[in-house]
Structures are given as structure tokens and as C-alpha cells.
Design brief:
Distance between the termini: 65 Å
Number of strands: 13
CATH topology of the largest domain: Dna Ligase, domain 1
Bound molecules: thymidine-5'-triphosphate, magnesium ion
Strand order of the largest sheet: 5-6-1-7-8
Structural class: alpha+beta
Number of domains: 4
Length: 428
């Protein structure tokens, strides 16, 4: 594969290698750390509160948790109440029980499985823990929830060896060594295939998929294995006699578009061919930034205009500072008011150029203020900047500064009464 890039230039671009890592039977495995004597047994997690094992712990208060006999734990067949299973150990899965199954049904399938409740605090602790271990080895990590992440292997030392297998092994070892937990890892050219691949060898497995393997390893899979094809799409695909990913890949893109719509049909075609260039998102991008303040006492637009005006200017300056500090510019500027009767009013306006300039924000936010009622007293005032983009050196971080005639622009007031207050507002 590397040969494709070898064109006489010394620097061969590395092949994109994306890993998807998913912890094995996560909630159950966390419980087994506390109760290692249950290892290898059928255990399901679900049902009520931690009361269940609190009772056991009290009974065996004289010994460490790891020495409470397995026979002391409650059985699924004795479980009373409703609820669903959140997960099951691999030993329990042998009986056909698994996530989202009702406890009653599970009890019929695996009556002698042990039941333990979820310990969310413990789960969150280990969730943070395994992610921190990964980040020390491979820094480009996208958090995908409590027990899974995407990791960019492309430029990490060892990330290209054996298609990523060497680095995957190292990560598995580090996580197991430091927590006692196992995970499964899929490594592929992109997120879409990596996500599928992490399931190929569960538990404690590694799967490496190359672009050339799509036909043999991806096409035979049922359509639901594509992350993004849900139960509804599955039903429709089945009605159209498409059952495997290969069935989808065999269709014309236009035909899929006709049947599933422009965006979804085209996406489905790409997905079936294993095409996906979504980047690894290391932290979620903010949609907007805002600052707001609740006053110590309700303020009136006319009687307290000096105080309100100062607060307003300050809020704009704070939002501008937030934008600059985080490296964003925005194009939609808005305000939020809460009146003394707790009603809320918001207005916004989108401008031509992206900005993080406090004066521009102040000016446009001021125009928004002209469009709301200001007879009632106010409890809260907020300023928001949305439609954000990362500011770059090419892009001027500030819009053209205009003279400080704050309400000069004639933005048609949405509220006719606002006109009567325009004179007042000029004082802000
Ligand atoms: P999963 O990764 O889907 O499952 P798992 O880690 O238990 O097992 P696997 O080895 O197949 O990955 O989910 C992670 C945790 O999220 C799981 O341990 C429990 C919780 N969960 C629920 O609470 N409800 C659900 O329906 C699912 C699917 C998971
Ligand atoms: Mg998991
Ligand atoms: Mg998961």
C-alpha cells in the first residue's frame, strides 16, 4: 500500500490508521475488579440500587470484598422487579442475555446468573482512567462515550507497524496493567471501518482492516453493522432485498439516493464502500459563547440606564475575551433578557463578517436590544455570539471597526413599541 505514495519524493505520507477502542463488558468488568471471585461466572448488571450488595457487605463485614463467597450474591431467578440489563459478562452472554434485555426474560435464559447493580461513580472513574492511559501513549483521542474512543494511530510511533497491531497491543497492555480491564481494538483506514473492526475479535481482541479488505471483511456483514444504519433504515433495506453491506455497495448511488434521499443515500453508498473521511475530533467544538448576569436587584432600562449600560458593555467585553482566548470568531450576535415576571426575550442578528471585537459585539447586541420591550424591569441580561469559526491568521479576527454611534444602524424593530424607547436606548 505504501507504494502508492512512493513517487520518488523522499517523504512518503503515512497511511491513515484510525483505531476504535471499546472496553469489554465494561460495567460488569468494573464490578469484577471489586469482586474478582466472580471472574468467569455469568454476571449481569442491572436492576435497582446498590442496596443488593450493601446487604451482602454488611453480612460479611468481617472480610475483604474479594473474599465474600460467590454463593452469597443474588441470582437472576430470584430477582423481583422490572428493569433491563445494562450489560452481561461474556460467560452470561453464552446464555443469550445481553444489553437492553428485560430482567424477566434474562432470568428465563440464565436463571443462575448473578445480578449486580451499576456503580456509576466507579464506572466513571475507570472511564476517565483508561482514557488517560491511552492519551499518554497516543495523544489524538476522540471521546465517544463511557467505554469507547477513536484514536489516531497515523503519526504515533509504532502506529503503522503491522497495520497498527503493535501499538494496539501496547495500549491493551497498558490499560490492563494499570486497571485490570480488557478492551478490544479495531484499526482501519477510517472511523467507520475501525468501529466495525473493534467488534470482530471481542473480548480482548485486535483486528486490523486495510482498504483492500473491505470486500472480504466488510461486505458480508449485515447492514446494521454500519454505525448510522438504524432499525428503520434496516427495515427499508430489507424490503428492498438488501441484507448485507455488500448488497448496498452493489447498488447505483443514484438508486440509493432515489430511495433514501440525497444526503442519506449518498452517505450509505460511501459507507458501504468503506469511504469515510471524518476527522478525529479531540474536543467538541462550541456552538456559541455567551455571558449573562442576574442582577442583585431588578433594573429598569430608563431609571437604571447607567448601571445597565455598564453591565451590558462589560458582558460584551467578556464574551469578546472568551472568543479571543479560545480562538474563535462569530457572526451571530444576540441578547437575552429575563423580566421581573420571569419571561424571557431573546433577539439576535447575523452580520457579514466574523468578529471577536468587543465594540462590534456591543454595537450589534445594542441593535438587538432595540427590538425588545423594555417597560418591565429586568432580572437578567445576557450576550451571546454564535455561528462560530476558529479564527485563523488569514482571517482578520476583528470586523471593521465602526464609529461608536451605537444605535445608528436602522434595524427594523420587531416590536413597534421599541421605537418609543429608542431614545432611551441610545443612552446604553
Ligand atoms: P457497550 O460497549 O455497548 O457494551 P459492553 O462494554 O458492556 O460490552 P462489549 O464487550 O460488547 O463492548 O456499552 C458499554 C457500557 O454501556 C456497558 O457496559 C453498559 C452500558 N450500556 C447500557 O447501560 N445500556 C445499553 O443498552 C448498552 C448497549 C450499554
Ligand atoms: Mg464495550
Ligand atoms: Mg461501547
Amino acid at each position: 500500500m505504501a507504494g502508492r505514495y512512493a513517487c520518488g519524493v523522499s517523504s512518503v505520507p503515512p497511511i491513515r490508521r484510525i483505531a476504535h477502542l471499546d472496553m469489554d463488558a465494561f460495567f460488569a468488568s468494573v464490578e469484577l475488579l471489586r469482586y474478582p471471585q466472580l471472574k468467569g461466572l455469568a454476571v449481569v448488571i442491572g436492576g435497582g440500587r446498590r442496596k443488593v450488595d450493601e446487604i451482602i457487605r454488611q453480612k460479611y463485614a468481617d472480610r475483604p470484598l474479594s473474599e465474600i463467597p460467590a454463593a452469597a450474591f443474588p441470582l437472576l431467578k430470584d430477582y423481583v422487579g422490572r428493569g433491563v440489563i445494562t450489560t452481561a459478562t461474556y460467560a452470561a452472554r453464552q446464555f443469550g442475555v445481553g444489553s437492553a434485555m428485560g430482567m424477566m426474560k434474562a432470568a428465563r435464559l440464565a436463571p443462575d446468573a448473578l445480578v449486580l447493580p451499576v456503580d456509576f461513580e466507579e464506572v466513571r472513574k475507570y472511564s476517565r482512567g483508561f482514557k488517560a492511559i491511552i492519551r499518554e501513549i497516543a495523544p489524538v483521542v476522540e471521546d465517544r462515550g463511557v467505554d469507547e474512543v477513536y484514536i489516531d494511530f497515523t503519526d504515533v510511533p509504532g502506529g503503522q507497524r503491522e497495520g497498527g497491531r503493535v501499538l494496539a497491543r501496547l495500549i491493551q497492555k497498558a490499560i490492563h496493567g494499570q486497571t485490570g480491564l480488557t478492551c478490544s481494538i479495531g484499526i482501519a483506514p477510517n472511523k467507520l471501518i475501525a468501529k466495525m473492526a473493534s467488534e470482530f475479535n471481542k473480548p480482548n481482541g485486535i483486528s486490523v482492516v486495510h482498504e483492500a479488505d473491505v470486500q472480504t471483511r466488510i461486505w458480508p456483514l449485515p447492514v446494521r453493522k454500519i454505525n448510522g444504519i438504524g432499525p428503520k433504515a434496516e427495515v427499508k433495506l430489507h424490503q428492498l432485498q438488501l441484507h448485507t453491506i455488500g448488497d448496498i455497495a452493489a447498488q447505483q448511488r443514484e438508486w440509493l439516493v432515489d430511495n433514501f434521499g440525497k444526503a442519506y443515500g449518498a452517505w450509505m453508498h460511501d459507507a458501504a464502500w468503506g469511504r469515510d473521511d471524518r476527522p478525529i475530533v479531540t474536543e467538541s467544538e462550541p456552538v456559541s459563547m455567551s455571558r449573562e448576569t442576574t442582577f442583585d436587584r431588578d433594573l429598569h432600562a430608563v431609571r437604571d440606564r447607567v448601571e445597565l449600560g455598564a453591565i451590558f458593555t462589560d458582558l460584551c467585553r467578556q464574551v469578546a475575551q472568551d472568543l479571543r482566548r479560545k480562538g474563535y470568531v462569530g457572526r451571530t450576535i444576540g441578547i437575552k433578557l429575563r423580566y421581573d415576571d420571569f419571561r424571557i426575550a431573546t433577539r439576535d442578528q447575523t452580520i457579514e463578517e466574523f468578529t471577536c471585537d468587543p465594540d462590534t459585539i456591543r454595537k450589534v447586541a445594542g441593535q438587538c436590544l432595540k427590538r425588545v420591550q423594555l417597560e418591565r424591569r429586568l432580572r437578567l441580561l445576557g450576550v451571546r455570539v454564535g455561528k462560530l469559526e476558529k479564527s485563523s491568521s488569514q482571517q482578520p479576527a476583528t470586523a471593521v471597526r465602526e464609529q461608536p454611534a451605537l444605535y445608528a444602524s436602522a434595524d427594523t424593530p420587531a416590536d413597534p413599541q421599541a421605537d418609543t424607547l429608542a431614545g432611551t436606548l441610545d443612552l446604553f
